[in-house]
Amino acid sequence: MKRVGGKSLVASALLGASLVQADPQSICATENICYSIAVPTSSASSNSGNIYFQLKAPTSYSWVALGTGSQMAGASIFVMYQDGNGNVTISPRLGTAHSQPQWDQSSTAAQLTLLAGSGVAGGIMTANVACANCESWNGGDMSLQGTSVPWIAAWRSGSSLATTNKGATISQHGGSDHTGFNIDLTTATISSDSNPFLTSRDTGGGGGSGSGSGSPAGGNGITLARGNPNAAAILAAHGVIGALVMAVLYPLGSLLMPLLGRWYVHGAWQVITFALMWAAFGLGVQSAKDRNMLFTQTHTILGTVVVAFFGIQPALGYIHHRQYVQTQSRGAVSYVHIWLGRILMLLGIINGGLGLRLVGERQELVIAYGVVAGVIFLCYVLAKVFTVIGAQKAQGRSYKEDRVPGNMRRPYQESRRHGGRYA
Ligand code: HEM
Ligand SMILES: *[C@@H]1O[C@H](CO)[C@@H](O)[C@H](O)[C@H]1NC(C)=O
C-alpha cells in the first residue's frame, strides 16, 4: 500500500508539474472497439471501492463485453448493448466455460452504474461505468494495486439487441473475436473518485504519460494478447493429448515392463509417449499465452514441473538398463527411475484434473476423467503386484527373502537375451 501511495504521489507531482492528471488506461482490441479503465487512488490504497471503465464501439456490433479474469470460466463479465432508446444497457454476468454468460442477479453481482456520457451518438455506443465492488466476485478477485491484472474482452457484430433487459440472450462471438490483456493498474490511477470519462482526454493530451490514448497496442501499462483464431483447437488438442499421455499411455507403458518383461517394448512405448508429452506441453504453453495465464495457475506451474522431471526419465531408464545388464540387479538409479516415474504419473493425472477444472469443464467430464485414470492406474498397480508375487512363487522365494539387502536380483531377465520373460 505504501508503495502504491508513494508511486502515485510521485506521479501526481510529475503530472501536476505539467498540469495533467493521471489518466485512465486505454486499449483498443480492434481498430474501433476500445476500453478504458481507471482506479481512484482512494480505491487503490484500500483495495476496495469504485473503479471506472468505459466500453466504446460502433453500433455495427450487437454486443461488446469486458471482463475481469483470464478466460471465460470464472470471469466477471460486463456486457454492453443498445437499449433501444438511444442509450446502452450494461449487464453484469458470470462466465462459465464456453457458454453464454448468464446475468448475475445474486447479491454478490458486480454493482454497475451507468454514468453520464453513456449513450449512442454518431453510430458509436459508449458505456461509462462505475463498479462499486469489482475487486472480488463469485469466482475470483483482483488487486486494485496489481501491476499485472488480467482482463478479457469479446464482441459480436450484428444488429441491435434494443433491450433494457440485462438478461437478454447474446449470441456467441467468432473464433477470433475475443482477446485478453494484462493491466498495470498502478498506471491507471485517477485522483478523484468520480467519472473520469467526461473530460475527454483520449485525444492524447497526456503528453506521453502511461495512457494508451486509443493506440491498438495499448499504453505502457497494458499488454494485449490478440484473439488467436486457433485458440480453442489448440486448447482442445492440449487437453486430449495431455490426458492420453498422463492417464493412459504412461501407465500402460509402465505396465508393459512387468507384464512382458521386454525392456525395449517398454522403452519404445515410453519414448513415443514422451514425445507426445512435449507436444502437449507446447500446446499448453500456447494456450496459457492466449489466456495471459502463463505460469500463474497451479495447473500451469505443476504441469511444467512434472514435464521437466519427466525430461530426465529416459536417461535414468537407460542408465538403469545398462547397469542391470552388467550387474543383474537394480541400483539406486533404478529405484529413482521407477519411483520418480510413479510419482510423476500420479502428479500428471492430478494435474490433468486441475486443467479440466481450470477451463471450467463440466463436472461429469472431470469425474469421467478421474474414473478412467484411476482404473488404468489400478491396473498398473495390480499387474505389478501380481507379476512380482507370481515370479517370487515361481522361484520358490518368499517375499521376505527377496527384500533381503544384497539380494536385489529381480526375476525377469532384462539382459543377455534382450528381453527374456519372467521366469
Ligand atoms: C453466447 C455467449 C458466448 C458463447 C457461446 C461463447 C463461447 C466461447 C467459445 C466456444 C470459446 C472458445 C472458442 C473460440 O475461441 O472461439 C470462447 C472463448 C472466449 N470467450 Fe466466449 N462465448 C460467449 C460470450 C463471451 C463473452 C460475453 C465474453 C466477454 C468477455 C467472452 C470472452 C471469451 C474469451 C476471452 C475467450 C478466450 C478464452 C477462453 O477460452 O475462455 N465470451 N467463448
Ligand atoms: C444514459 O443513461 C445514463 C444513466 O442513466 C445517463 O447518465 C446518460 O445521460 C444517458 N445517456 C443518454 C444519451 O441519454
Automatic annotation (TrEMBL):
InterPro entries (alphabetical): Cellobiose_DH-like_cyt, Cyt_b561/ferric_Rdtase_TM, DOMON_domain
Cellular compartments annotated: Membrane
Keyword NAD found: no
Residue span, DOMON domain: 35-158
Ranges that cross the membrane: 231-251, 263-281, 301-320, 332-354, 366-391
Signal peptide: 1-22
Gene3D superfamilies registered for this protein in UniProt: 1.20.120.1770, Cellobiose dehydrogenase, cytochrome domain
Keyword rRNA-binding: no
Stretch list, region Disordered: 194-221, 400-423
Key words, A-Z: Electron transport, Membrane, Signal, Transmembrane, Transmembrane helix, Transport
Domain of life: Eukaryota
Compositionally biased spans, kind Gly residues: 203-221
SUPFAM superfamilies, sorted: CBD9-like
PANTHER family in UniProt: DEHYDROGENASE, PUTATIVE (AFU_ORTHOLOGUE AFUA_8G05805)-RELATED (PTHR47797), DOMON DOMAIN-CONTAINING PROTEIN (PTHR47797:SF4)
Name of the protein: DOMON domain-containing protein
Organism encoding this protein: Podospora bellae-mahoneyi
Phylogenetic classification of the source organism: Eukaryota, Fungi, Dikarya, Ascomycota, Pezizomycotina
